[in-house]
Amino acid sequence: MTGVTNVEPTDDPLTCLRPAPCGDPPTRDYDELARELEEAGKQFPPPERGDEVPDARWFEANAQALYQQYKGMHVAILNGAVIGAGLDELELRLDVSRKYHIHPDRALVVHLFSALW
């Protein structure tokens, strides 16, 4: 599945986590990806206001453990669980939208920056 990966984290914050060497072009054309996200957004109902609050609270309670496992990556959280992780936020949103049949904005997507903790 493009964009969703189980890349092992590294202790070196300067090490690139991408499967291909750093500096390579994106794996997908962003204009194409934006069109696919727009289409996915039409297929599934948009999130309701406040839907992300429980997942945001779950993230806050589990941020340290998530950082240890997913440092430098984006994680998608839905119903108090990580449902995907990847290096490219847009690809991750599209992947979880298709896999879980949800609007691309329904899952809470957080980037776990290397410098936060």
Identify the notable features of this structure and list them briefly:
117 residues, alpha+beta, three-stranded antiparallel β-sheet, 3 helices, 3 strands, 38% helix, DUF5678 domain-containing protein
How is this structure best described in words?
With about 120 residues, the protein is α+β, with helices and mostly antiparallel strands. It has one domain (about 30-110). It is about 40% helix and about 15% strand. It has three helices and three strands, in the order ααββαβ. It has a three-stranded antiparallel sheet, with helices on both faces. The longest helix has 18 residues, at about 55-70. The termini are far apart. The relative contact order is 0.24. This is DUF5678 domain-containing protein. It comes from Gemmata algarum.
